[in-house]
Amino acid sequence: MIVVEDLHKHFGGFHAVDGASLEIGAGSITGLIGPNGAGKTTLFNVIAGRLKPTSGRVLMAGEDITGLAPHDLFHKGLLRTFQIAHEFGSMTVRENLMMVPSAQSGETLWNAWFRRGAVAAEERAIRDKADEVLEFLTISHLADERAANISGGQKKLLELGRTMMVDAKIVFLDEVGAGVNRTLLNTIGDAIRRLNTERGYTFCVIEHDMDFIGSLCNPVICMAEGRVLAQGTVDEVKNDERVIEAYLGTGLKNKVVAHG
Amino acid sequence: MDILNALVAFANFVFVPGLAYGAQIALGALGATLIYGILRFSNFAHGDTMALGTTFAILVTWGFQALGITFGFLPTALLALPFAIIMTAAFVLGTDRVVYRFYRRQKAAPTILVIVSLGVMFIMNGLNRFIIGVGEINFADGARFVITAGDFRAMTGLTEGLAIKATQAITVVTAVIVVGLLFWFLQKTRTGKSMRAFSDNEDLALLSGINPDRVVQVTWIIAAGLATIAGVLYGLDKSFKAFTYFQLLLPIFAAAVVGGLGNPLGAIAGGFIVAFSEVMVTYAWKKVLTYLVPESMAPDGLVQLMSTDYKFAVSFTILIIVLLFLPTGIFKGKSA
Ligand SMILES: Nc1ncnc2c1ncn2[C@@H]1O[C@H](COP(=O)(O)OP(=O)(O)OP(=O)(O)O)[C@@H](O)[C@H]1O
Ligand SMILES: [Mg+2]
Q1: Counting ligands in written order, which one lies closest to the CA of residue A18?
Q2: Residues ≥6 apart with Cβ < 8 Å to A163
Q3: Which of A1, A55, B72, B95 has its CA 20 to 30 A from that of A134?
Q4: Ligand 1 pocket mutation pick from A7, A8, A10, A11 by most atoms within 8 angstroms of CB
Q5: Could you cite one Gene Ontology molecular function of this protein (chain B) (predicted)?
Q6: What pTM, to 2 d.p., does this model score?
Q7: CA distance A65 to A72
Q8: B20: Cα separation from own chain's centroid
Q9: DSSP-derived 3-state class of residue B284
Q10: pLDDT block averages, 10 residues each, chain A of length 260
C-alpha cells in the first residue's frame, strides 16, 4: 500500500529521518515503535504531506505521492491523526466530525441557495454518521460540547473518530491511545480491527504500549535515530538484540529471557 | 430641564452619526478580521482596498449617469456596487496571485506578510490616485434626506431637529443585510464552515481535505466585497478622497483588535465601540447639557473633551488600552 524509499528529513543539521525505507502492506495493521525522538512522527508528517522530505520517495499503491499537499492526500484516502490532538476549537464535537467529509453539495453557494433540500438531506446523513461515530467512541454526551473544552483523552478519541467519517484507504494513527484509559484503549483496538476487517482499512499505528501493539499489529517496525532498525512479527522485533538495546531496554530483555 | 429636546439633540449629533460611522467601521473591520483569521496577518492594504473599491464604484456610477441610468431616490452608486465588487475582487485576487502566494508558499512569518501588505498598500494608493486623482469627489445622488431637521421640528413642535440623511439610513440598512448574509454564509454553508475550520486550526483543516487555495480565494473575495461596500458607504456619507481611506486603517484595526482579531462578531462590536467613542469624545456637549441642567448651571464652554482634529487619537487610545488589559479582545480573538 505504502512504500517509503530512502527517506530523509533534515531540520538544519539534524537528521530526524535519516534514510528510512519501509513498506506498509495493503490490509495490514502495521505497528511503528521506537524510542522518543526516533523520528516516527516526523516520518508521518512527511508521508502525510505536512512536511516536505529532504530527499527520498513515498509511493501509494505504486503512485508517487511525495510532497503532495495534505488535502490532496486526503482525497486519495490517506488520513492521519496527530500525536498532540488537534481540534476545531470553536465548533462543537459533532461539528468537528461533520467537517470531515468534503466535496459535499453544500460546498457551492449555488447549491446552498437553490438546492436546499438536497443539501439538508445530505447534512442529515452526515450528522447521523457523526452521531454513530460518537456513540461508538462512547462520547455521545459530548456531541454539543465545544471541542476546545473536552479533555485530552477525549480529544484523542475525536481524532480517531475523524478517520471514521470517510472511507479511508490507509490511516496513520500517532499514539492514539496515549492518555486514554485501558477499557477505552481496548475499545479503540477493537475499532481498529473492525475497520480493518470489515472496511478494509490499512493502518499504521505508532504506540509505546507494547501490549497494545502486541495484540493488534502485524508486522511491527522499529525505528531509531531516523532509521528502520528491525521489522517482523511482534515477537521477532521484541527479541531483536538491537531493538532491546535501543528501545525496550535491558529490563525487558531480562524479563523476556526469564520468561522464555 | 428639557429631556425630550436633549434626547433629540443627542440622537441628531451623536447617535445617528455614530451608528452610521460605526456600521462603516464594522464592515471595514470585518474584512480585516477575516483576512487575519484565515491568512494570519494584519492587512495594511485594507484601507486602500476600500479606496480602490470606491474608485471603481465611482467610475461605474459616472458610466451609469452618462448613460442616463439612475436608481430612483437611491444613489446610483448602489447600482454600481456589484460591478465594483467584482472589479475589486479581481484586483485583490490578482495581488494574491502575484504577491502573497509567493510568501505563503515560503511559509513567511506574519510580520513579513504585514510589511508585504504595507508595500501593496503603497502601490494601491498610488494606483488609486493615478486613476481618480486626489481631489474631493461627491458621488452621492438620489434623495438627500429621509427626514430633515425642519420637517422633524414641524412634526413634533420641538426646538431641536432630528435630521437623518439618506446615506446614513442606507449605510445602516446595507450593513445589516451584509452582516446577515455574511453570518449565514459562515454558519450555514459548507465553504463558510471550511473558512471557520481553517481559521481554527489550519493543520487539521488541511488534513480534513479542505483545499487551502480555495479557502484563501473565497476569503479575498469576501474581504474585497466588504471593503468595497464599506468604502462606498463611507464615501456616500462623507465624500470621497483617496487619502481619507488610508486614515481609516487606524479605527478599523482598533475595532478588529477590540473585538478580538479573527472574530467576526467582535469586529462588529468593536466597530461600534470605536465609532461611538470617537463621536462622543469629540462632540461638544454644551447643547445637550444646557437642556438637562438648570439655567443657572448651564455650561459656558463647549464641553468638548477633544477637538475633532484629534479624533484618531481616540482609536489609538482604545487600541492601547485593549492591548494592555485585554490583549485578545472582548470576544477572545487570536491575540493581537
Ligand atoms: N519541526 C522540527 N524542527 C526541528 N526538529 C524537529 C522538528 N520536528 C521534530 N524534530 C526533531 O526530530 C526528532 C524526531 O522527532 P519525532 O517527533 O519524529 O519523534 P518521535 O519518534 O515521534 O518521538 P515520540 O515517541 O516522543 O513521539 C526529535 O529529536 C525532534 O526534536
Ligand atoms: Mg511522536
Answers
A1: 1
A2: A79, A81, A171, A173
A3: A1
A4: A11
A5: L-phenylalanine transmembrane transporter activity
A6: 0.86
A7: 9
A8: 10
A9: strand
A10: 94 93 95 93 94 94 92 91 90 91 57 69 88 89 93 88 89 88 86 89 93 91 92 88 77 44
Consecutive H or E run containing B28? helix B16-39
Please list every protein residue whose CB sits less than 6 Å from any atom of ligand 1.
A 11, 14, 16, 34, 36-42, 83
Amino acid (one-letter) located at B267: A
3-state SS class at B142: coil
Cα–Cα dist A20/A35, whole Å: 15
**Run of H or E including B265:** helix B264-282
SS3 content of chain B, % helix, strand, coil (to 5): 75, 5, 25
C-alpha grid cell, residue B252 = 478599523
**According to CATH, what is the number of the domain B3-246?**
1.10.3470
Cell of B187: 454558519
DSSP strand pairing (A78-80 vs A170-174): parallel
Q: What is the C-alpha to C-alpha distance for residues A246 and A240, in angstroms, rounded to an integer?
A: 10
B197-207: pLDDT as tens digits = 999 898 899 88
- Domains contained in chain A, CATH given: 2-257 (3.40.50.300)
Residue spans of the domains in chain B: they are: 3-246
Q: Which residues of chain B make contact with A95, given a CB cutoff of 8 A?
A: 193
